[in-house]
Structures are given as C-alpha cells and as structure tokens.
C-alpha cells in the first residue's frame, strides 16, 4: 500500500476522529493529520443529542460517552426577570422513537479521546499529531496535501481529502468554497463555576433563561468527576473591551445579576468567543469533502453544532466507504452534500437562530407570546413530542435519510 491509497482527514477533533473510525471500521485506510501535539481540552460543546447517541452506539462509543458525562433527560426554559419556570420538556416522550430518550452532557474533548482510543486499535488507521496541513492542490485523480511537521514540510497525495479542520478551515479556503452567512456583532461569554445550581436553584442540567437585555444558558458538565461544573453563557456588548468583560468585577456582577447569592462565585474558567451562522456553499468539491465546523458553524443555543458535525462524519464515512470499496460511484458523495447541507440549513441553522430569538426577545408582548407558546407546547404531549423530535435532531436525521432515497 502506498500513501496514495489512503483517505486523508485534516483535523483531529471529534468530527475528524469519528469520521476516521467509521472509515477504518469499513476497511478504508485513513490518516488523520492534526496540527496540535495532542488533543486539546476544549471546554466548549458538551451536549450530545439522542440522534447522535444512536450513531455513536453503532460505533460502540455510546456507553463510554455516557459514562464520561451526565445524563440529562429534561431541559427547562426560565424567565430571568420574574424567576418563573416557563416550561420543562422531558425526553421520555421519545421513548418509542429512540433507544436513547435523553441527552448526554459530555465535553467534546472527552468524546474525542474516546474516539481516538478506538481508532488507535484499527490497523489501517493512523493519527499524526503535530502535522499541520498548509496547502492543497487538486488534481483529476487526487489531492496533493502539503504538510508541516516542525521544521520539515512534505507532501502526500490522497484520492479523497476530508476537511474537518474547524471554522477557519484551510481545506475549505484552499478549495475556494464560500462560507455563506453572517457573524454576530456580540461575542459570547462563558463563565464556569462549581456552584450547584440544581441544589440551590432547582435548575435542570440544561436550562435556558430569556431576558430582554441579556439572556443566559446554564448547563452542567461532569468535568473531572463529582460534583461537576456549571457553565453559563451570555451575550456581551460589542462596544466593551475584552479586558473589561473578563475582569473579576465584571464577571461577578454578571453572575450576581442572573443568580444573586451571598458572597462571590468561584469561577474556574472564563472565555470570550465570536459566534457565526455560516454554511459552506458545498460540502463536496470534486475530491475535497467538508465536515463539522469546516462545513457549518452556528450559535450554541440548543447544542447542535458538534452534533451536526458528528452526524456529518458518520454519513460521510458510510458513503465514502461504499465508493472506496467499488460498490458505488463517487456520485454518491453528491448525496452526502445534498443530505447534510440540506439538514444543516433547514434544521440546525433555522433552529439555532430561532432559539436565540426566543431568548433575546425585547418586546414584552413578543416575550409573553413566546412564553405562552412554550407552556402550551410543554403541556400538550403531542406538541411536546414534536418539539422534542426537532430539538433532539431525530427529525433532522430522518429528513437526511429520506433525501435521495428510492
């Protein structure tokens, strides 16, 4: 076997590693190139929806992901200004639709580590850390990839290159694929604390707070073990400087505004990040394929970004394996683009934008109408189930499967 006889994946995060594992399990030789020297303890995405748990189960990962995280069967909507619980939704309503009627709160770096441990057992897979893709050249029969490892640069050629290298994807940019959409003016602020919001406030592991000036997401992760950590996410004033937003005084003031208590909060992590709503114009350009944040990015309300990326990875691995093994022509990869780009636009982008609008509504009549709708939906089992089918991404996966079906 030569180096030309391997799929190359740029990016060793959870999306790239899970795509590689799916390929290796189907006898497709694969190399993952990751620019960092090891997996990063990225504190961002944690929510793993039922639709994604089904896919992880097919790869033999679900039990380990669940053990590394927290099971969250319910989520709540609150009005911050009144302190009222508006609605609660229980995934138990999905028990006839999925084997996993719950969400697992497992930080993405843990999911990546679990996938890596399985991938390293596959004889036809390799993961090269400290290897950064710096350029690509597309040809009729393959893609030549330029790679930097320390002071050394070299090239490798692959029949198919998968860009799973994040929102700033060099693969996407080098392939000349447009990243359509917009960037929010405000940055999002994440503050992490060990304060137990469930015991002291009755909040579920996933809680959303509507506020006409400053909404908030509050959710729990397992971290290094009991008692775990709670992450709170807020929008920020685009006119404020980063140092001011991250100062001790500002951080304490923000937490106390939402969750007043005696004494200061212990804050173990604080971070600001830009938020985008963008989708690549195509997820396939000849022999270059995109997955995860390289293909689409969205705001984190509802926890759909990483889930969509894992769903990309599994979908792509299945189709690319069929092509590799000669059971299908590479036209099947156009179906990957159709399925994943369609549900990304129709479900992930639409849902996350709507989630943000629901929480940030300022007009009081609109706010009260939103609250009435949530109460009525949660109080009607049929409507609540439909709401959960969309929120759990089960509808998205079924819509994708139906596209292009005979």
Output the number of helix runs: 13
Structural class: alpha+beta
* Beta-strand share of residues: 25-35%
Trace the largest sheet across and list its strands.
Answer: 6-5-15-16-17-14-18
Report Rg.
Answer: 21 Å
Poorly predicted residue ranges: none
Q: From the structure provided, what is the oligomeric state, counting identical versus distinct chains?
A: single chain
Number of strands: 22
Intertermini distance? 36 Å
Average pLDDT taken over every residue: 95
Instruction: Using the coordinates shown, work out and report the CATH topology of the domain at 3-71 and 106-181 and 276-357.
Output: FAD/NAD(P)-binding domain
Level-1 CATH class name of the domain at 3-71 and 106-181 and 276-357: Alpha Beta
CATH architecture of the domain at 3-71 and 106-181 and 276-357: 3-Layer(bba) Sandwich
Specify the biggest β-sheet: 7 strands, mixed
Written description of the protein model:
The chain is an alpha+beta fold. The chain has a domain at 3-71 and 106-181 and 276-357: FAD/NAD(P)-binding domain (3-Layer(bba) Sandwich). The protein contains 13 helices and 22 strands. A seven-stranded mixed sheet has the order 6-5-15-16-17-14-18, with helices on both faces. The longest helix has 29 residues, at 332-360. It starts with 6 loop residues before the first strand and ends with a helix. The mean pLDDT is 95.
């Amino acid at each position: 076997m030569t180096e030309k006889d391997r799929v190359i994946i740029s990016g060793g995060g959870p999306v790239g590693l899970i795509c590689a594992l799916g390929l290796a399990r189907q006898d497709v030789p694969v190399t993952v190139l990751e620019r960092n020297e090891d997996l990063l303890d990225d504190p961002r995405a944690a929510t793993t929806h039922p639709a994604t748990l089904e896919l992880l189960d097919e790869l033999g990962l679900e039990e380990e992901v669940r053990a590394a995280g927290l099971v969250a069967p319910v989520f709540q909507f609150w009005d911050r200004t009144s302190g009222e619980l508006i609605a609660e939704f229980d995934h138990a309503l999905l028990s006839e639709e999925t084997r996993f009627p719950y969400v697992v709160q497992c930080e993405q770096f843990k999911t990546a580590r679990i996938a890596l441990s399985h991938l390293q057992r596959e004889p036809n897979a390799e993961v090269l850390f400290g290897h950064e893709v710096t350029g690509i050249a597309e040809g009729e029969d393959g893609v030549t990839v330029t790679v930097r490892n320390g002071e050394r640069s070299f090239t490798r050629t692959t029949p198919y290159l998968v860009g799973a290298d994040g929102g700033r994807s060099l693969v996407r940019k080098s392939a000349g694929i447009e990243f359509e959409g917009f960037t929010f003016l405000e940055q999002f602020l994440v503050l992490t604390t060990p304060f137990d919001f469930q015991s002291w406030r009755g909040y579920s592991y996933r809680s959303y707070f509507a506020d006409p000036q400053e909404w908030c997401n509050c959710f729990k992760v397992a971290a290094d073990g009991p008692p775990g950590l709670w992450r709170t996410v807020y929008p920020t004033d685009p006119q404020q400087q980063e140092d001011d937003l991250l100062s001790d005084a500002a951080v304490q003031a923000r937490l106390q505004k939402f969750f007043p208590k005696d004494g200061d909060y212990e804050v173990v992590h604080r971070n600001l990040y830009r938020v985008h709503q963008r989708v690549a114009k195509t997820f396939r350009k000849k022999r270059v394929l995109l997955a995860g944040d390289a293909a689409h990015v969205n705001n984190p309300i509802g926890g759909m970004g990483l889930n969509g990326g894992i769903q990309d990875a599994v979908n792509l691995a299945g189709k690319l394996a069929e092509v590799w093994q000669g059971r299908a022509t590479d036209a099947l990869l156009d179906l990957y683009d159709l399925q994943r780009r369609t549900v990304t636009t129709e479900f992930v982008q639409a849902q996350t934008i709507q989630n943000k609008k629901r929480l940030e509504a300022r007009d009081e009549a609109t706010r009260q109408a939103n609250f009435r709708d949530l109460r009525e939906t949660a109080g009607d089992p049929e409507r609540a189930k439909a709401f959960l089918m969309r929120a759990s991404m089960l509808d998205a996966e079924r819509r994708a499967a139906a596209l292009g079906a005979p």
